[in-house]
Structure formats: C-alpha cells, structure tokens
Design brief:
The chain is an all-alpha fold and about 270 residues long. It is built from twelve helices and no strands. The longest helix has about 35 residues.
C-alpha cells in the first residue's frame, strides 16, 4: 500500500491538474475576499471611485463584518457553498479516471492484486493533497487579510486546528465518495457531474427541503454537504466533536465500498 501511495504522490507532484485546481481555488478566494474588503471604509472609498455599486446599506457596511474572523471568512470563501468540494472532487476524478483511460490500471492490478490497498492509497493521497490545499488556502487568507489592513481579527490557533481538522476529515470522506463513483462508472463525465451535484449540494438541498417539509429530513443534516455548511467553526463544547464521527463513518464506508467494488470488477 505504501508503495502505491508513494507512486501516487510522485504522479501528483508531476501532474498539472493538482496545481491548476489549486490555482482556481486561489482565484475564487481572492475575488471573494476582495468583495468582503469592499464592505470596509477603505473598500467603500475605492468602490465609489471605480463606480462599483455596493449592495450594503449605507452607514452599516462595517456591521456586516461583525463577528467575522479569519476562519469564518475562510469558510465563506468556498467551503460553505461547496466550491472547494466541487473543485477538489473534479481533481480527484481526473486523477482516478486517468488510471482507467491510460490502461495503467491493469498494470497496477497485475503488480498489486490487493484492491483494498489501491483504494486506501488513493484516499490517503487525496487526503494529503486535501491537507495541503486547506492549509495553503488558509495561509493565503491570512496574508490577504493582513495586506488589506486586518479587516477581520485573526482566529486563535486552537479554533483554527479544530475547524481545519474536521473540515479535512469531511472533505477527505468526500474524496472517498468520489473514488467510489469513479470506480463504479469509470467515466470522466459521470465523475464531473457527481462532483458538481454532490459537492455544491445541488443534489442534496432539494431532497432536504422536501423531506424537511415532511418532518423526515433530519438525517440529511449529517450528510457531507450539510455538515460542511452547518457544523460549527469554533469549538464550544464536547457536542461539537460529532463532526469527527460523521467524517470517520463516511470515510470508512465509502473507502470499504470502493474496495469491494474493485474486488468484484474485471479490470
């Protein structure tokens, strides 16, 4: 398994898709942080000069930033809306489906017949990339915040560790889900559609809305998308640790299911 993981990390290091997807995340984060900055007095002055029509209420723009810190701003730059999950899922889809399209999968399975090792190595590789993405993006938010005059206060290190760690676990579980979809379909198109629909909540929210009206949607509050959107970003009590259980369960279930599917497939 560790040989497969080392090989996957080497391929990721040399591939362009991981860097392109990270660049897209940086661009969308820069745009959103800039929009937040326009709510500050300095930003309002620039907005007036360039003729930008602000949607904020005159004299109340500073109030829109009340209670926001660097973690909450980081969260609102893609994690809540699902942009991060979508782009991360698309990268993983490209990475996994390339094994099938290039015929490399047959070579891997000939040398490593343990399909469970393949599934785990792919998810672990995705987890490493995921951690690099999240850490890099948060550092980028810190840099932008300081460059723009510290428009929001910086979050304490313990809250940063709490949010980044459970967010990493949940999004790595999403990577395991994408792996399962890719090994089931072996299709780039299916993987891309799944990343968009599941990552952004497009497939989840309509179902949740309907079931909630019928008082049957409580279980969907523990789905990956809903957890990313509604779970706390600051630790307040032991009850906030449920996010780790949600992530661990989804991670284990999707990884094991992908391994079972691979075992039954004729590669």
């Amino acid at each position: 398994m560790f040989q497969l993981l080392r090989m996957d990390l080497y391929r990721i290091k040399r591939s362009k898709s991981a860097y392109v997807c990270f660049g897209l995340l940086l661009l969308q984060m820069s745009a959103i942080v800039f929009m937040v900055w326009l709510l500050t007095p300095q930003g309002q002055q620039l907005a007036d000069k360039i003729g930008f029509v602000s949607a904020s209420v005159p004299g109340n723009s500073e109030g829109m930033l009340d209670g926001m810190d660097t973690v909450s701003m980081f969260r609102r730059t893609g994690l809540n809306g699902g942009t991060y999950s979508m782009i991360f899922g698309i990268w993983l889809m490209l990475f996994v489906c390339m094994d099938y399209q290039s015929g490399f999968m047959k070579n891997i399975m000939a040398l490593h017949q343990n399909r469970f090792s393949y599934a785990v190595s792919k998810v672990l590789a995705a987890g490493i990339v995921n951690l690099c993405y999240l850490a890099g993006l948060y550092v980028f938010v810190l840099i932008l915040n300081r460059l723009l005059g510290k428009m929001v206060p910086e979050t304490g290190i313990l809250d940063v560790v709490y949010y980044i760690s459970w967010c990493w676990l949940i999004t790595t579980a999403f990577a395991a889900l994408m792996l399962l979809i890719c090994v089931c379909t072996r299709s780039v198109a299916a993987g891309a559609i799944a990343a968009v629909l599941l990552g952004t909540g497009t497939a989840v929210m309509p179902v949740y809305t309907v079931l909630r009206q019928l008082h049957m949607g409580e279980w969907l509050e523990y789905s990956i998308y809903m957890t990313l959107s509604t779970a706390p970003d600051h630790y307040t009590s032991g009850g906030d640790l449920y996010v780790y259980a949600v992530g661990a369960v989804f991670f284990a279930v999707y990884t094991m299911t992908a391994a079972v599917v691979l075992k039954k497939q004729d590669i």
